[in-house]
Structures are given as structure tokens and as C-alpha cells.
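Form P-L/3: holo structure prediction, ligand nicotinamide-adenine-dinucleotide.
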Amino acid sequence: MKQDQPPRRDFLRYVGSIAALSAPALHAAASEKNRVEFPPIFDKSEKPEQTEPPGDAWEERVGVAVVGLGRIAINEMLPAFQQSKHAKVVALVTGDREKGLKIARQYHIPESAVLDYKDYDKLAAMPDVQSVYIALPNNMHAEYTVRAARAGKHVLCEKPMANSVAECKQMIEACRKAGRQLMIAYRSQYESLDRALVKMIRDKKLGVLKEFNSVNSQNMGDPQHWRLKKALAGGGALPDIGLYCINAARFLSGEEPNEVMGNIWSTPGDARFREVEESCQFILRFPSGLMATCSTNYSAHKSQMFRVNGFEAWAEMDPGYAYHGNKLRVTRVVDGKEQTSEIQAGNKNQFTLMIDHFAGCIQQNKDVHTPGEEGLQDQRIMDAIYESARTRRAVKLTPPPGKTRGPEPEAS
Ligand code: NAD
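OUTPUT (holo model):
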């Protein structure tokens, strides 16, 4: 690129190249052999037709058992599996057989593949089931991961990975010993706008990062829900939704915090927060000087935003942690004027992108991008935040012993 080009053109061109990331090429897979070609139908004055890469033949797809038929499994993941190119749902594990059969009919799963939790270990004898997707309350993640690994299955486990560092380590060890993949369902790390922003940051388009600010809040209703029971959820707002702020600060910056400060609060007398915290405010200090200031709340109207502020520009996603409809804006000074660009990076379902990354890594025997080590590191940080809130002091963190992430998802 020539040095004398005005910065505006440079940046717009760059934004254009980011938009191109959304092309299906991002997740183009080895299934090209299944492509059916048609001769062009339009005149060459029209833009060329773009088609999605084809999915794998059914028998080549990775078979998944969905374990736990709650909101995330039924409302988001099962529909996302239908758009997948590399995976197929072949079994369901649920404590409610009637619900299981209803879902099985919708997704063409045989009745015989609808299991009760007590029959979970029978998955070992079902060769069609190569992997499990665990969508249970947090306190059940460790047990169901370890049992799946022993049954010879790869594991995609929901966040938060577990309720303690000890459980996270147990899960990693069980999958390592069994020679099976363990991936934590950090969907944001597969979402197109987040990927575009990671690229922008790595390409130094925001300059040196100085601040990350984030709010993730939602107002909880039913005081009896498992999310408000400490033994099941592990904590309140922090492990459920504050986790997104921690994880985003880490994967966007590519750094690990070396000190944390935390504060927690529960309104006295509020029946919802007898066992877990209502809100948590925390600061993560990173070695480069980047500071992440975050707030998470179980009693405030839904807000799911973050802003990364660099020396030269800031980028904001609002919403940034939503299932659908996230938005990315970048603001910088161009030709002496403040200018905001809204970045487009495709509208692919982030759950499907995550599923296809997981299944693609199993098919190709490649490391996943968000393995157990990534969940373990977030758990260490959450423990330090709680410790800081308890002791009213900053808590130092040593770096993780090794890499917490595998290759970038595009590589798969
Ligand atoms: P949910 O309450 O809607 O579903 C939980 C499921 O677990 C239900 O089918 C329930 O019957 C079953 N279950 C089994 N044993 C249970 C027990 N002892 N108590 C309560 N339920 C029991 O919850 P959800 O929102 O689907 O969350 C499930 C997991 O997915 C959690 O770990 C959560 O953090 C995670 N999650 C992730 C995302 C994401 O975007 N990645 C979003 C929501 C939830």
C-alpha cells in the first residue's frame, strides 16, 4: 500500500477486506467433493453467484448426543445443528422422556436413541455417537464430561466449564487420558464479528490497546431456578454472564491478566440472591498496561456490550454477547473528523460455526480453538475475583502454564 494514501481510503479498504472474511471460504471444508455445479444463469454484468460450500455426506458427519434438553439445547443448539455441515444429532439424553420423544420426532432421531440420564454410560455401546454436547447445570459438567471421555466420546461442554479449578483439571485429564477432544462452548470466539475484531486488533488498526470496558447484565425472575443455587451454578452473575467479559478481554487482547480486583454485591432481603451474588464489578490488569473494567449484574435490564479502546481508535460491540444480531462499530479520526464505521462480517449463526469447528477438528484430528485449558484459565480468574472481593485486596495471577487456545478457527 502506498504511503501517501489518505488514511480514510486505507481504512475503508481495510473494512472491505474484513467484510470479505464473512465469505463462506472462512469455513470452507474438505467437503468440496460433494459440490453440485450449475452453469451460470445470469449475464456477466451481474455479480457472480455465490454458493455455500456443501455439507458432508450424512454418513461422514460427526454423530453427537445432546445431553440435557433445556433452553440453550432446544432453542439454539438443535436448530444450529440443522445448519451444520459436519455434525449430526444422533441421540438425546434427558430426564423427561416425553420431551425427548417430542424433540426426537422433530429432528428425525430414533426413539431408541432417547436415553435417560441413568443410561448415560450406554452411549459407550453406540458407535454412531462419536461425541456429546453437554448442556446441563454447571455442577454436572465435570461428571458428564469425565463419563463421556471414559465411554470414548469427544466432548463439547457448555460454559462455564465447571464450578472449580479442580473439576476443570479433572475434565482435561480425563479427555487427555482417553485421547478425546474437549472443547468449551465459547461461542463468541467463533462469531464472525468477533473474529473480524480479533483480526483488526492483531493488524494494529486500533493501535495499542488501553481499555476494555464491558457490561453484561440481565434481570433474573424465578428465585428457584438452578442459576440462583450455589451448589448447582457455582456462583451468580459472574460465572454465568460475567464470564463473557473475562473471556472477551482475553481473546481480543491475546493477553492474560496478572492482577485482578473484584467486588460483589447482593441486595439484602432479595430472595433471588440468598446463595449467589447479584452483581460483580471487577478490574483485570494485563501485562501491557491494558485494563479491563467490567460489570455483571443479575438484577439490571439486559445489556451486553463491550468497548475496546486503543491508542488510535475504539471498537464497540453492542450488543456484543447476544445469540443473534450483534453489531460492531469502529470510531477513529479520519481527515480531522471523527468517523464511525459499522463493520459487516456475515450473518452466519455463531452456534453453527462453533459446532462445525468442533466436528471439523474431530474429523481432521486437529486441536480445537477453545479447549479445556481455556475454561480452566477463566475459572482461575473467577476464583481470584471472588478472593479479591472477600479480602478487599488485589490478587496476583501467575500466567497459565501453557497455551490456552488452539489454532484460529479459520484454519479449520
Ligand atoms: P436450562 O435450565 O434451560 O436447562 C438445563 C437442563 O438440565 C434442563 O433440561 C434440565 O431438565 C436439566 N437438568 C438435569 N438435571 C438437573 C438438575 N439437577 N437441576 C436442574 N436442571 C437439571 O439451562 P440452560 O440455559 O439451557 O443452561 C444449560 C447450560 O448451558 C449451563 O451450563 C449454561 O451456563 C449454559 N448456557 C450457555 C449459553 C451460551 O450461550 N453458550 C447460553 C445459555 C446457557
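COMMENT: The radius of gyration is 22 Å.
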